[in-house]
Amino acid sequence: MTIPVPSLTVVPFSCQNFNTKYSRKYTFSPIEFDPLSLIPKIKSLRDLKQIQAISIKTHKQNDIFFMSKLINFCTTNPTPASMHYAHHLFDKIPQPDIVLFNFLARGYARSDTPLYAFVVFLKILTLGIAPDFYTFPSLLKACAGSKALEEGKQLHCFLIKYGLNDDIYVCPALMNMYIECNDNGSARRVFDRIVEPCVVMYNAIIMGYVRSSEPNEALSLFRKLQVKKIKPTEVTILGVVSSCALLGTLGFGKWVHEYVKKNGFDRCVKVNTALIDMYAKCGSLPDAISVFESMSYKDTQAWSSMIMAYAIHGRARCAISLFQEMQKARVSPDGITFLGLLYACNHRGLIEEGFRFFNSMKENYRIVPGLKHYGCMLDLLARAGRLTDAFNFLMELPIRPTVLLWRILLAACNIHGNVDLGKLVLERIFEMDKSHSGDYVIFSNMCARAGKWEEVNYIWKVMKVRGIKKIPGCSSIEVDNVQHEFFSGEVTRIEHRELHQEVDKLIEKLKLVGYVPDTSISFRPGLEDEDKEATLRYHSEKLAITFGLLNSPPGKTIRIVKNLRICGDCHSAAKFISLIFKRHIIIRDMQRFHHFEGGKCSCGDFW
Q1: Same domain, yes or no: 29 and 117
Q2: Does residue 174 or residue 168 have the better pLDDT?
Q3: How many CB atoms lie within 10 A of CB 68?
Q4: How many whole angstroms separate alpha carbon 518 and alpha carbon 533?
Q5: Looking at the domain assignment, is residue 326 inside a domain?
C-alpha cells in the first residue's frame, strides 16, 4: 500500500514574551498553575496553541493525559489545520499509546484525507503498540470514505489475526466498509457471521443492496427480519419501499404501504415521499397522487417527487401546474425539482418552457445545473430534431461533455437518421469508452436505415473483434405477487416455447387489424426478411404482454418493466393489443412510462 505522507512541517510555537503577549487572557503562577484547567475553555485552534505554549513553560508537554486532551480537541471537529496540528502533537510525543492514536485515527476518518490515518497506523505497528477494538472502526471508516477496498481487506486480515473479526463494535464498521466499497458479497458474509444482528445491521445491508440495485436481496432480508420479530425502523421501510420501486412490483408495494400505515410509519415525510416515488415507478400514478394529497406536511423532496412522477408519466402540464402550487405554498425548489420540470418538458417536446425553467433555476434560484440538467436540455433539443442546436449546446457547456451526454446526441441522430453527425458523435464516444454495446447497435441501426450496409457489417465485425456482446432485452411482469422475467429470443425453457406459440397467434390477430412488423429495425448481418420478423416477434416486451394476457383476468391492467428503451415495433404492437383486448398496458422502459389505451399511447409517439 502506497500512501502519500502528508507534509507535517510545523513552525515551533514560540513562548518568548508569552506572559506579556497573552497576559490579558491567561494570568497564572508558573509554580501553582495547571494548564489542564484551561482546556474546557478552548474555543479555537489559536487558543489550543496558546495552552500548548503554557504546557511547555510548565513542563507538561510530555504528559500523555494532557496531550491526549489537546489531540482530542483537534480531532473532534476536524479541519485540515486542526488535523495537521494534531499530527504534529502526536509526532512530538516520545512514547505515544494506542489511545492517542485512536483519537488521531477518528479525526482522520472524519476528515477530507482519511487515508492519512494509515501513515500513523504503520508508525504504531513499528513501535510495537497493539491496536484494540476502538482502533479498527475508525480505520474501517477511513477506508469506507475513500472507497479503499484493498486496504479494507488488509484490515479485515488484521482483525482476524487479533481475534476481533466477530466483535460487536467492529462488525458494523466492517460491514459498512464493504458496502461503501460496493462489495455486498463480503458485507453479507460478515453479516451472516453475526449471531444476533440488530436492526441497525439489517438496515445497513438492506440499504447497501438498494444502492447497488439488488432489490430482491433487500426484500429477502426484510422477510428474515420479520421472521425474527425485529422491529423495523424508518430506514428499514425506506429501503423496502425503494426496492419495490426498483422492481416495479406494485402488488408487494401496496402490501408494504398497508404495513406502513398499520405501524405508524405514514407519519414520516421521508417514507411518504418514498411511497410517491414507488407508486410512480410501479406505474400507478393515481396512488402516488393519493399519497401526496394525504400528506399534512410536504417538504421540498415531497413536492419534487410528485413533480417527477407526473414527468415520467408524460403529464407535463400537471407537473408545471404543481410547481406553480409549490411556489404559492412558498416551498423553495431544489435541483431535483427543476430536474422533474425539465424531464416533463423533455417528454412532451416543450422547448420554450424547458429553457424558461432552465434559465430560471440559474437566475432566480441560484441553483447550479448538474450533469442531468444539461442532459435534459440536450435531449430536449435533440429529440425535437434540432441536432445542430443540440451539438452547439453540447460544445458550449461550462463542463467537459461526458460520454453520457454524447450518447444522448447519438440516440437522437438515430431517431432523425443523421448518419454523418452520428459518425462524428460515435468517434467522440469511442475516445472515452469503447465497451458499451448500445453505442455499436445504435450506429449500426442508423446505417442500416440509410442503406449503408458496408458500415453495418464493419460495426458488427468490430464488435466481434473487441468481444462486445449486445445486451439482451429483458422485460418483467408481476402476476399474483410473483415476478416473471422474459428475455428477447429466449427459447431454452419449455414454457417459453409454448409462450412463443401464443405470441405467433397474437401477431396474426394484430395483422388482421393493420399491424405491420417494422423489419427495418432488425439489422443483424445475414438475416433474411422472415428471420428479421421472427426476431422482432419474440422481443421481451411481446413475451411479457402475452404472458399477462394469458394469466390475468380480462380488463386487468398489464404492467411491464423493460431494461432498455422500447423499440418502435413493440410500441406499435402494444397500441394494437390495447385496442383489440381493451386492456390498459403500462410499459416502463429505461427512460419513461408508456400508457397504452384504446390504440393510443400517452407519449403521443414522442419518446
Answers
A1: yes
A2: 174
A3: 19
A4: 8
A5: no
Q: At what angle do helices 234-247 and 269-281 cross, to 10 degrees?
A: 10
- Among residues 286, 318, 351, the one where a domain terminates is 286
Domain that holds residue 104: 1-130
How far is it, in rounded angstroms, from Cα 319 to Cα 342? 10
What is the C-alpha to C-alpha distance for residues 590 and 599, in angstroms, rounded to an integer?
A: 22
Report the domain count for the chain: 3
Joined grid coordinates for residue 462: 468490430
Which cell goes with 523?
Answer: 439489422
Query: Do residues 110 and 210 both lie within one domain?
Result: no
Q: In the structure, what pLDDT confidence band is assigned to residue 388 with cuts at 50, 70 and 90?
A: very high
pTM of this structure: 0.80
Sort 251 into a burial class: Cβ within 10 Å, 0-12 / 13-18 / 19+: middle
Q: Are residues 204 and 94 in the same domain?
A: no
The answer to whether residue 28 is domain-embedded is yes
DSSP 314-340: T-HHHHHHHHHHHHHTTPPP-HHHHHH
Task: Specify the amino acid at residue 67.
Answer: M
**Is 522 a domain residue?**
yes
Determine phi and psi for 588, rounding to 5 degrees: -100, 110
Domain boundary among 90, 110, 130: 130
Nearest partner of 421 among 436, 438, 408, 432, judged by Cα:
408
Residue 561 counted as domain residue: yes
- Residue for grid cell 514574551: 17
Q: What is the mean pLDDT of the chain?
A: 87
Amino acid identity at 465: V
Same-domain status, 117 and 239? no
Q: What is d(CA 503, CA 534) in angstroms, rounded to the nearest whole number? A: 10
Contact between 222 and 240 under an 8 Å Cβ cutoff? The reply is yes
Instruction: Please give the average per-residue pLDDT across 485-504, as a whole number.
Output: 77
- Secondary structure element (H or E) that encloses residue 348, with its range: helix 335-348
Q: Give the percent of the chain with pLDDT over 70.
A: 90
User: Given the DSSP bridges, would you call strands 585-588 and 474-479 parallel, antiparallel or unpaired?
Assistant: unpaired
